[in-house]
Amino acid sequence: MTNATAPLVYRDTVRADWVDYNGHLRDAYYMLIYSFATDALLDAIGLDAAAREARGRSMYTLEAHLNYLREVKAGARLRVEMRVLEHDAKRVRVYLEMYAEGDVAVDGAAPVAASEQLLLHVDRAGPRAAPFDADVLARVAALREASSAEGFVPRHAARTIALAR
């Protein structure tokens, strides 16, 4: 569960088999790390594995945008900070920033990657969209409020992909 402090944090380390021929974290593994981070978010809002099983509910990712901002190498210790940007009765839009801890050029400064995602609460019996249960919705709202209260500005959110004209 969470005490509604922003941001929520997930930590991981870049494994050697996640690194490509350039010596950098493979692009697909950024999304894997963000997927693990959203699992931590589910735990924080009361939808951990046991609750998902008992309630017959889950979250599906509807859309994800990923910005690769700086290379990451094998062994890097990563910190992903997650914030709730907005929500309604069935959906939550989250923003995640990945940092390479211990990297003086990055730690406390700029993220190495950023992701914006839209998640949908689902009744697995359908599967079909379903409103959040009241306790889960209250936790989502508390995380949104905490993100808002800290004055956080998502630098890489609400972007589209296009060539500059």
UniProtKB/TrEMBL annotation:
Alphabetical list of Pfam families matching this protein: 4HBT_2
Domain of life of the native organism: Bacteria
InterPro entries: 4-hydroxybenzoyl-CoA_TE, HotDog_dom_sf
Gene3D superfamilies: Hotdog Thioesterase
Molecular function terms from GO: fatty acyl-CoA hydrolase activity
Designated name of the protein: Thioesterase
Organism: Paraburkholderia acidisoli
